[in-house]
Design brief:
Helix content: 25-40%
Structural class: alpha+beta
Number of helices: 19
Shape: globular
Largest sheet: 6 strands, antiparallel, barrel
Number of strands: 36
Strand order of the largest sheet: 9-10-16-15-12-18
Distance between the termini: 44 Å
Length: 763
């Protein structure tokens, strides 16, 4: 009788099965198995916020399979991810299995490696109800806020809208920034650069600073001209030369938040893509027999902690000494302090095997996996390296009573910079004082006179604050304590999907719908979109997790305030002006001469007179006339969420003889293409990776491993999530037939089945 281990994902199941051996059977729940139904509130507020959970639609067969395996198992280990959500999945699994959660064996893995997995199985624990209650509180909050607020949006703005506890705050942040940009009035200012030379003929530049009393801002041309005229024929005297050496410390290893920020800035990945790839690296990838087969390459990717195990520190220090030299390894391991309100259950994000350098596993990883793994590996190694040593030079010169300055640095010893340098977002760069690197200033001495070769005035205007990017929004949310790093991806995806925000390149821009909805929320539900209030709610979840407060007390406190806002909104919600701006057409109403506008009806969009009800003229939105058909604009270019693997440019969607594919936007200068694919929810029978649905000639569908050609699995028949009863290999559905056959050629198992759904499409 084997032991049963239940994890979340099939790819993690394959790795863990390999480590535990034949005495263990490992199956995947594929995420949550129970949740609140979508059709109703399903939270009894009057009776202690009792939540009514049901089995998720479509998971009935999976739950029956898990129950069957559980009945036959000697022991049952619940092993979803090691966080609140994973703890809740374990609790729901116990409920779905009709078992007492208090008697279930819970195990969690900070990294998917043989030693960690085997050690965790030896020391199971009980389900942590504090973690479960923290997750339940968040789920109930989100459900109550969404279901209670959304009807007010329907009444005031339009049907189909939804409000959310954190998504509404995120939308407000972006709307507030847009209002700042609109209210911004540029101010003129001037700079003056003097180009100087010493007696040896070496030229260098200095910039106007002010005078002995301090910095002077030149706000108009006349002020700049006055300085210019004063110094044109005056000598420049060196008044100060300061040389120094300073140490530049490495950045700490990644947390979830900093990983998302850095991958967004350096790799151009969206948060959803970052977390998906990080999950793949954590759960396990076949990196070849020479590297140990299926391994989890990074530690758990949802963490606020900067803590690193002593074993990982020592392994990093050994690698640094061997690969870069002893001078690159500090005398003591570097320890980084985790901030006060962070959850410290897991280590920082780091490689599980420091010896698996990115180059060693490159051929086994997808492009996205390799780029993110390389970023994580380099960041962690650099975090344990010696500081960089910089030679700094700052000079000050006086002319006609005015001061000019120049400064910069050169690298004396690269230290950690030999491996990695942290990037900055646009706003940080704009706010920072410019610092010139590798400055070229000749040897100067105080009291020395230098020759003025040229002086150049430049006119500038102050810039408005930059729009938020995903990286800068995540940074803001993290600093304010709004949401948690594990939820940032969902928050951003939600506000974009619901059309409160659109992407403009890397920038996040509010839509008219987002602005109107935010205005309504600020006027009627100010607490829900208040930064401090939302951050306090997150702190309350942390306190529940620590066991310091009770779930019911927190929910009751929230409801007392929120219900009052709902009562007030009943009387005030119709008084504000929350109309969406109308979209004008070029069609002129023949009855009153007004420009018609676009309206939505039960059969789609139509043109209507804006003077309704005085003029009730409507008409369908006509297609372009025949004579304009030849000039019809091409469909909008669809830009992929990944970059060209050869030149880094955008990839755009194209259509060819074999269906849809992505091509480099620089074609024909760059010929790189990538086939458009969909994923099949079945693990590859050879390596456990994802199976992709692809189009062949004449758009014929076939199935192939995402690691092709490293893994050569491909098939015209569709794999299904069912094992052969004779040999245990995957079953395949024969193309065009209601017949299941075993993947193993020597087995011969085949079974007729009821008619299955139409085959998947690669489009």
């Amino acid at each position: 009788m084997a032991n049963l281990v239940i994890v979340e994902s099939p790819s993690k199941a394959a790795a863990i099965k390999k480590y535990l051996g034949s005495n263990y059977k490992v199956i995947a729940s594929k995420g949550h198995v129970r949740d609140l139904p979508k059709s109703s509130l399903s939270v009894d507020i009057e009776n202690g916020f009792e939540a009514h959970y049901i089995n998720i639609r479509g998971k009935g067969d999976l739950i029956r399979e898990i129950r069957k395996e559980a009945k036959a198992a000697k022991k049952i280990f619940l092993a979803p991810d090691p966080d609140r959500e994973g703890e809740a999945i374990a609790w729901h699994l116990a409920g779905a299995l009709n078992m007492d959660p208090a008697k279930m064996l819970r195990v969690s893995f900070n990294e998917i490696t043989p030693d960690v997995v085997r050690a965790a199985i030896k020391e199971p624990r009980a389900i942590d109800m504090n973690l479960v209650n923290a997750q339940q509180t968040r789920r109930i909050w989100d459900r109550v806020v969404g279901y209670k607020l959304s009807p007010y949006l329907w009444k005031s703005v339009k049907n189909g809208l939804s409000a959310g506890r954190v998504q509404s705050v995120a939308a407000r942040i972006i709307v507030d920034r847009e209002e700042e940009i609109r209210a911004f009035r540029p101010e003129e200012y001037w700079t003056i650069d003097a180009h100087l030379g010493n007696g040896e003929g070496k030229e260098f530049a200095v910039r106007f600073y002010g005078n002995a009393e301090g910095k002077i801002k030149l706000s108009c041309e006349q002020e700049a001209t006055d300085v210019l005229n004063a110094v044109k024929n005056a000598p420049f005297l060196v008044t100060s030369v300061k040389r120094a050496t300073r140490q530049k410390l490495p950045a700490p290893p990644f947390t979830t938040s900093t990983m998302q920020q850095e991958a967004s800035r350096k790799l151009g990945f969206q948060s959803q893509r970052i977390m998906r790839v990080a999950q793949e690296l954590y759960e396990g990838i076949n990196v070849g027999p020479e590297n140990g087969g299926v391994l989890g390459l990074i530690t758990y990717m949802r963490t606020d902690s900067l803590r690193v195990s002593a074993e990982a520190q020592n392994a990093a220090r050994e690698l640094i000494s061997e690969k870069y030299g002893a001078e690159y390894c500090p005398a003591k391991p570097r320890v980084y302090k985790t901030r006060a309100n962070a959850q410290d259950a897991h280590e920082a994000i780091r490689p599980s095997h420091i010896d698996l350098e990115p180059a060693k596993v490159h051929k086994y990883l997808t492009v996205d996996q390799y780029r993110l793994y390389k970023l994580i590996w380099e960041r962690f190694v650099a975090s344990q390296m010696q500081s960089a040593s910089l030679n700094t030079l700052n000079v000050e010169l006086e002319s006609a009573g005015y001061l000019f300055r120049a400064g910069g640095y050169s690298v004396a010893f690269p230290g950690y910079m030999a491996v990695y340098e942290e990037s900055e977002d646009e706003e940080t760069r704009a706010d920072a004082i410019s610092e010139q690197k590798d400055v070229r200033i000749p040897d100067l001495n105080e009291g020395e006179h230098v020759e003025m070769r040229d002086v150049e005035p430049n006119r500038h205007f102050t810039e408005p604050p930059a729009r938020y990017t995903e990286a800068s929004l995540i940074k803001f949310l993290d600093e304010k304590g709004i949401g948690r790093p594990s939820t940032y991806n969902t928050i951003i995806t939600t506000i974009v999907t619901r059309n409160y925000v659109v992407r403009d390149g890397k920038s996040l821009v509010p839509t008219p719908l987002g602005e109107v909805t935010t205005k309504l929320m600020k006027e009627n539900f100010s607490d829900i979109v208040d930064y401090t209030f939302t951050a306090h709610m997150e702190d309350q979840l942390d306190e529940i997790e620590k066991g310091n407060v009770e779930m019911l007390d927190v929910l009751n406190d929230f409801w007392r305030g929120f219900s009052k806002e709902l009562d007030r909104a009943e009387t005030t919600i119709g008084k504000g002006s929350f109309e969406l701006p109308l979209e004008e057409t070029d069609i002129i109403c023949e009855k009153c001469g007004a420009k018609m506008v676009v309206k939505n009806g039960r059969y789609g969009k139509f043109a209507a007179c804006p003077n309704y009800p005085n003029c009730k003229n409507t008409k369908p939105l006509e297609e372009k006339k025949e004579e304009e058909a030849e000039k019809t604009e091409k469909p909008p270019v669809v830009v992929a969420d990944f970059k060209c693997e050869l030149c880094g440019s955008d990839m755009v969607q194209r259509t060819g003889r074999y269906g849809t594919f992505f091509a480099c936007s620089r074609y024909p200068a760059c010929h790189f293409t990538k086939q458009k694919t969909k994923e099949l929810d079945v693990p590859c029978p050879k390596c456990g990776s994802k199976i992709l649905i692809k189009s062949g000639r004449s758009k014929t569908v076939f199935y192939s491993c995402e690691k092709y050609p490293t893994c050569d699995f491909s098939s015209w028949d569709m794999p299904v999530n069912e094992k052969c009863p004779d040999c245990g290999n995957l079953l395949f559905r024969k193309k065009g037939k209601a017949l299941l056959v075993c993947h193993e050629k020597n087995c011969g198992y085949r079974r007729e089945t009821e008619e299955l759904p139409a085959e998947e499409s690669a489009e």
